[in-house]
Design brief:
single chain; 385 residues; alpha/beta; TIM Barrel; Arc Repressor Mutant, subunit A; nine-stranded mixed β-sheet; three-stranded antiparallel β-sheet
């Protein structure tokens, strides 16, 4: 079906599904943590899950690990030490591996930062969302602005050099000045990376069922453009729709997603995508979403909630859906290397996109234009089969 001369880089995603409290805007697979968190049982399940995945990726090394949630910083360093020992026994680590852990700014989690770093975790992604206490309250967050700032300072103090801040705009009752203050505070704290994105009302969330009053959409766009300019002035280069980095500190794990690399997904509700040279195929699979069902079935066929093989007809769209999120687009040869089919497969859509001034291309590179970035959904839709 495909023709892989080499396989894409491989990443590992680990999902921890519990939070102290479910935020009203969150549509991730997260659940309120029970009084007695089944930490050890869950680590056992993750190890069984990874062992079951191994036949699909024998002989490959991993280039990045991302521990997401939920709130992964609810787990102790001892739990992650045991997990990492098992991962290392099964999979070779790339020498420059990036290992990210998502953390909330609460005092309890921040106390563990030094221990996390000693395990080899070298990147923290801190879910600040806002530095305004009124906004944090409206978002249902359990930390305040002082705790957020303290958590970031603690991360630096214990030696983390690669820190991402998650920041949202278009929040309930947010004003232009509040949005501007959030950006200025973030810049003053000098993280290496900022994820800056608009609050959206996702289905299956409390905000979707009971929508809060949000700022006018035209105002939100104006704030976004102004704050993007401010980030650029401060040295944060936008390299993806909602990602800004200083000093070449782009998130390597997410870059692998956007460049259509491979990734294993272990944990409740985790998704994976793996290319197979022996069968010349690309498959996706997801795991049981409910934590208890996941733990009960891990290591057995029942842990797989869904599995599908990506068709040749869909592969062009799948690739471009990810790669065109990148401001710089992608090197032309990457399409054949990671999609396993020649670029001529999508030539008609590429011509249409060029004619509409949505992308530019030459023998070396394909990238969205400024117009293509602004109308990204329109651009991507051209590649639908």
């Amino acid at each position: 079906m495909f023709n892989f001369t080499s396989l894409p880089p491989l990443s590992l995603y680990i999902h921890v599904p519990w939070c102290i409290r479910k935020c009203p805007y969150c549509d991730f697979n997260s659940h309120k943590a029970p009084d007695n968190l089944a930490e050890q049982n869950y680590i056992d399940a993750l190890i069984r899950d990874l062992e079951q995945e191994m036949p699909h990726i024998w002989g490959r090394s991993i280039h990045s690990i991302f521990i997401g949630g939920g709130t992964p910083s609810l787990f102790s360093a001892e739990a992650y030490q045991r997990l990492f020992s098992s991962i290392r026994a099964l999979l070779p680590f790339n020498p420059n591996i990036e290992i990210t852990l998502e953390a909330n700014p609460g005092t309890f989690e921040a106390q563990r930062f030094d221990e996390y770093r000693s395990l080899g975790i070298n990147r923290l992604s801190i879910g600040v969302q806002s530095f305004n206490d009124h906004s944090l309250s409206k978002l249902g967050r359990i930390h305040d602005s002082k705790q957020a700032i303290k958590a970031i300072e603690t991360a630096y103090k214990v030696g983390f050099e690669n820190v991402n801040l998650d920041l949202m705009f278009g929040l309930p009752q947010q004003t232009e000045q509040m949005a501007k203050n959030d950006i200025e505070t973030a810049i003053s704290l000098a993280p290496s990376h900022i994820s800056y994105y608009q609050l959206t009302m996702e289905p299956n969330t409390l905000f979707y069922q009971q929508p809060p009053t949000l700022p006018d959409e035209d105002h939100i766009i104006d704030w976004q453009l102004a704050n993007q300019d401010r980030l650029a002035t401060a040295g944060y280069r936008q390299y993806e729709v909602s990602a800004y980095a200083k000093d070449q500190k782009q998130c390597q794990h997410n870059l692998n997603y956007w460049q259509f690399g491979d990734y294993l997904g272990i944990g409740a509700g985790a998704h994976g995508k793996v290319s197979d040279a022996s069968t010349q195929s690309i498959s996706r699979r997801s795991k049981q979403k409910q934590p208890q069902a996941y733990m009960d079935s891990s290591g057995t066929a029942a842990v797989i909630q869904s599995e599908e093989t990506i068709s040749k007809a869909d592969i062009g769209f799948e690739f471009m859906l990810n790669a065109l999120r990148l401001t710089d687009g992608f090197p032309t040869p990457l399409f054949y290397q990671h999609a396993g089919i020649p670029l001529s497969h999508i030539d008609k859509a590429l011509q249409q996109a060029e004619q509409q001034d949505l992308l530019t291309r030459d023998i070396h590179h394909i990238r969205p234009t400024e117009k293509g970035q602004r109308y990204l959904n329109t651009l991507i839709a051209l590649f639908l089969p």
